[in-house]
Amino acid sequence: MDFTGKVVLITGAGNGIGRATSLGFATRGATVVVVDHDRAAGEATAGIVRQQGGTASYIHADVTKSADVQAYVKYCVDTYGAIDCFYNNAGIEGSIAPTAEYDEDMFDRVMAVNVRGVFLGMRHVLPVMIRQGRGSVVNTASIAGLVGSPNMPAYVASKHAVIGLTKAASGEVGRSGIRVNAVCPGPIDTRMIHAVEAQIDPANPAAVGNRYQQSIPIGRYGMPEEVANLVIFLSSDLAGNITGAQYVVDGGRTATGGAVTNAPAK
Questions:
Q1: Which residues are catalytic?
Q2: What confidence tens digit (pLDDT) does each residue in 9-33 have?
Q3: Average confidence score pLDDT of the chain
Q4: Radius of gyration for the chain, computed over Cα atoms and rounded to the nearest angstrom
């Protein structure tokens, strides 16, 4: 798990899982390139890495725009000479509404960030890794890419698509020394899950959070660092025989279908 001398590129690194992963890689010796559409958040992540003695830089990008993606890839290669690991993480949750009522523009926006953004990231990073003859890509999917989640049609569709993109790419580049995997987080204690809670019940989002956590066998939301640890493992040489896979990190939620009858009262 030593990434000394390695260059790691992370999208959606301004907050949450992306920030935790940036810090996790940096503490293991990696140089981290932070990509985010939120300039203040991205610069803050890079600053925290540097404050803790690591090496990081920030580049602003909209992952839905091919020119922006090409620019962050070019910056990484021109500045640091390689892309050893790519954490393709940027994503949004969209709105909460049934399929029959879902806003078309919102659907397009979710698909643009969560699917087109992931595709464009691999489209422009993989040629660099092919030339290098090495590399690891980890895409952020979700347990919503494995099971349905009512009233989130765009998010569910997008995360199923991320798993499909992961499988397709892994079969194309394995002989080039490149591995491509996906992580499937369950509810994680970040802005995204709290935004979902607030959409479901603006008057009492805490009650929604309590119900969600009751449905998780470990009785709580996951932490960003717990997802980061999995991403770092999948990017390491310890995972040298793992590609085309999707790894669930959800406290057991999908294993039980969300039905936990012996959950302790909270």
A1: 155
A2: 999 999 999 999 999 999 999 999 9
A3: 94
A4: 18
7-186+223-255: CATH, from 3.40.50.720, 3.30.420.100, 3.40.50.150, 3.30.70.240: 3.40.50.720
In this structure, are residues 48 and 221 in contact, taking their beta carbons and an 8 Å threshold? no
Using one digit for the tens of pLDDT, what is the confidence trace for 146-176?
999 899 999 999 999 999 999 999 999 999 9
| pTM, to two decimals | 0.93
Could you tell me where the DSSP H helices lie in the chain? Answer: 16-27, 39-51, 66-80, 104-111, 117-132, 153-173, 191-200, 205-214, 224-235, 253-256
CA distance 250 to 156: 16
The pLDDT-based confidence of 258 (bands split at 50, 70, 90) is low
- The CA distances from residue 169 to 25, 46, 123, 222, 254, in Å, are 24, 29, 10, 28, 25
| Cα–Cα distance, 242 to 207 (Å, whole number) | 39
